[in-house]
Amino acid sequence: MGERRGTGFYGEFKSAREIAEQMKRKKRRQQKKRAQIIVIGILMGMLVAFSIIIGSVSIYRHENPTIDIEPYLPERVADWAMIMPLISAAEEFPELDIEENYLTENPYSRPGTKLGKVKKIVIHYTANPGTGAHANRNYFEMLADVGDTYASSHFIIDLNGDIVQCVPLNEIAYASNEANAYSISIECCHEDEEGEFSDSTYNSCVELTARLCEYYQLDPKKDVLRHYDITGKECPRYYVKHPDEWNLFLSYVAKEMGE
Q1: Mapped to the 3 state alphabet, what secondary structure does the chain carry?
Q2: What is the pLDDT of residues 74-117, one digit of tens each?
Q3: Does one domain contain both 60 and 154?
Q4: Which CATH number characterizes residue 228's domain?
Q5: Do 52 and 92 belong together in one domain?
Q6: Which of 57, 138, 143, 216 can bridge 109 by disulfide, Cβ–Cβ 3.0-4.6 Å?
Q7: Out of 49-53, 78-82, 160-164, 220-224, least confident range
Q8: What is the pTM (predicted TM-score) of this model?
Q9: 90 and 103 housed in the same domain
Q10: Domain-embedded: residue 198
């Protein structure tokens, strides 16, 4: 289908405000990259220091085999290099104007289980035509009382593009089956059974996905998936039936990231 219809964010022209916001995001990305380089340098220095310590301790351990050198192993240093887990997307990405409306902890939609290293972003559609983000969020909340299934999502994007965060980003959501343990989920509202996102929903999904990929250092072409790519479920339906549109979506995410 080519470019998005209407006057969405990814039309041919952008306003001065949008260009200014894009420049600010680019500056933040550059600052974050510089900070990461500094951190990597510090960690490499620490690794060298720990290697020297391990060598010295190993010599000593030859004569004292009961000494415990486990705390000095290099893989412990590698753990420190992991990206700090996020909790609130609203605090990290204020330009997206995200509403925090966390589900109550319960076994069916917010178990409180800690999320591991984030490796994937998974896009869904609600399969509930014509309903908004709050209605779908309240459905997830209702499961705490009804308890007839397990379902939730980290984010829901409304028909008008508003983003609601339902689950903290350091906890799993029940959205992507076996990928729950290492993925962040985004549910998108849609007008009809076909499941195509409105311009507003689409553009918000592009921006949110791009910000998450930047933070977690993910490649949108490899690490942004449809629910379909994990289980074979026809979700998000329109972008399963139209793979060219899915590839176009991924290209917009990469473009938003400045790639």
Answers
A1: CCCCCCCCCCCCCCCHHHHHHHHHHHHHHHHHHHHHHHHHHHHHHHHHHHHHHHHHHHHHHHHCCCCCCHHHCHHHHHHHCCCCCCCCHHHHCHHHCCEECCCCCECCCECCCECCCCCEEEEEECCCCCCCHHHHHHHHHHHHHHCCCCCCCCEEECCCCCEEECCCCCECCCCCHHHHHHEEEEEECCCCCCCCCCHHHHHHHHHHHHHHHHHHCCCHHHHEEEHHHHHCCCCCHHHHHCHHHHHHHHHHHHHHCCC
A2: 444 444 345 788 899 999 999 999 999 999 999 999 999 999 99
A3: no
A4: 3.40.80.10
A5: no
A6: 143
A7: 78-82
A8: 0.73
A9: yes
A10: yes
- For the ranges 20-29, 68-77, 148-157, the maximum mean pLDDT occurs at 148-157
pLDDT at 7 over 50: no
Q: How confident is the model at residue 38 (pLDDT cuts 50, 70, 90)?
A: confident
Domain range for 17: 13-81
Q: Which of 81, 110, 136 is a domain's end point?
A: 81
